C-alpha cells in the first residue's frame, strides 16, 4: 500500500490524482495485471462538494461568498464541507485484493475512524439511518463523513474527519442533507487543538491494522 501525504491542497488537484490512480487500476484489472493500493491523506482549501444524489437546495449560500470552492462529484451522499484542519482520506483500493464487498469495506472505513477517535477518548458510534461517525451523548453530532464510489471493484473518494476544522462553514449547508443535526470536531470535544501530523500518524496505524497491510510513503 502506498500512502500519499499531500498536506493542504485544492480539491481539484487531488481529484485529478484520484482519477489517475483509479484509471491505472482499472487498466491493470482489464489486462490481468496486479493493482496498486493507494491512500491519499490531505487537507483541502475550503470547498463544498455535492454527491451524485445530492440536492443543491442543501447549499444555503453561494460558496464564493464565504471563500469556498464548489464541486459536483460522483461519490455517494449529499453536500459536505472540506477545509483546513480536517483530515481527508481517499483510498483507491482494489476490493478484490482485500476480498471485500462494498458494505464490508465501508464498515472497515468506519472502524478506522472509531479506533482513531478512541485514542483521544472520544467514543464515536455508527447510526444506521445516518452515514458517518457520530457522538451521541448528550445529543447527536457528526464528527466524520463518509462518501465513496466503487466501480469494477476499485474505490474512490472516502472519509473526512473534523480534527481542528472551522465548524462555521457547516452552518452554510445542510450537512449530508440531514436537517437539524449538529457537527463537531476533535478540537471542539477536547477543548483544545490537536496536531494534525499526530492525528494523521495515529490514523495511519489504525488503517494499516484494520486492513492488515504495510505502507510505503510518498
Can you walk me through this structure?
The chain is α/β, with parallel strands linked by helices. The protein has one domain (2-217): Bira Bifunctional Protein, Domain 2 (BirA Bifunctional Protein, domain 2), CATH 3.30.930.10. Helices cover 28% and strands 31% of the residues. The chain contains five helices and twelve strands. It has helices spanning 11-30, 95-98, 102-118, 186-190, 196-211, and strands at 2-9, 38-44, 47-50, 69-72, 79-82, 86-92, 125-127, 130-135, 141-151, 154-162, 182-183, 216-217. The strands form two sheets. Strands 1, 2, 6, 7, 8, 9, 10, 11 and 12 form a nine-stranded mixed sheet that branches. It has a three-stranded mixed sheet with strand order 4-3-5, with no helix packed on it. The longest helix has 20 residues, at 11-30. It is globular, with a radius of gyration of 16 Å. The mean pLDDT is 93.
Q: How would you concisely characterize the structure shown here?
A:
The protein has five helices and twelve strands.
Characteristics of this structure?
218 residues; alpha/beta; BirA Bifunctional Protein, domain 2; 9-stranded mixed β-sheet; 3-stranded mixed β-sheet; 12 strands; globular
Spans of at least 5 consecutive residues whose pLDDT stays below 50 are: none
Please provide the ordered H/E string of secondary-structure elements.
EHEEEEEHHEEEEEHHE
Give the percentage of residues in beta strands.
25-35%
What is the helix tally? 5
Gross geometry? globular
Mean pLDDT reading? 93
Structural domain tally:
1
**Can you tell me the CATH topology?**
BirA Bifunctional Protein, domain 2
Number of strands: 12
Q: Specify Rg, calculated over alpha carbons.
A: 16 Å
Structural class designation: alpha/beta
- The CATH superfamily turns out to be Bira Bifunctional Protein, Domain 2
CATH architecture: 2-Layer Sandwich
Main beta sheet strand tally, sense and closure = 9 strands, mixed
User: CATH class, anyone?
Assistant: Alpha Beta
Q: How many angstroms does the end-to-end distance come to?
A: 11 Å
Helix content: 25-40%
